[in-house]
Design a protein that fits this description.
With 99 residues, this protein is α+β, with helices and mostly antiparallel strands. It has one domain: OB fold (Dihydrolipoamide Acetyltransferase, E2P) (Beta Barrel). It has 2 helices and 3 strands, in the order H-E-E-E-H.
Length: 99
């Protein structure tokens, strides 16, 4: 009987530890986009970009402007593809983005 109680206590403690660690780590992505800027943004106003997590329901590109704003845009838009291509060629190889 004592062995059964000990085993049950260990299982409960393990489940509590797993639940706590999952809550602290965070399960979801940090930033997702649900509304999109449809207007083309001039190249000289964009400082960089990041792609949102694949866990987001909508694929998106997050543009960081030179003014410090962040804009959600659709990666399928032609102007966005051209802008990303431009920014990729503009960046220095080996340099990491500060976004």
């Amino acid at each position: 009987m004592a062995a059964l109680r000990l085993a049950l206590s260990v299982v409960v403690l393990m489940l509590a530890a797993i639940t706590l660690s999952e809550g602290v780590r965070g399960v979801g992505p940090k930033r997702c986009c649900f509304r999109f800027n449809e207007n083309e943004v001039p190249r000289d106003r964009v400082a960089g970009y990041i792609r949102t997590s694949q866990r987001c329901s909508n694929p998106a590109i997050l543009l960081k402007t030179v003014a410090g704003r962040q804009l959600c845009v659709r990666p399928s838009a032609t102007w966005v593809k051209q802008l990303i291509s431009y920014l990729d060629t503009k960046s220095i190889p080996g340099e990491t983005s500060n976004l």
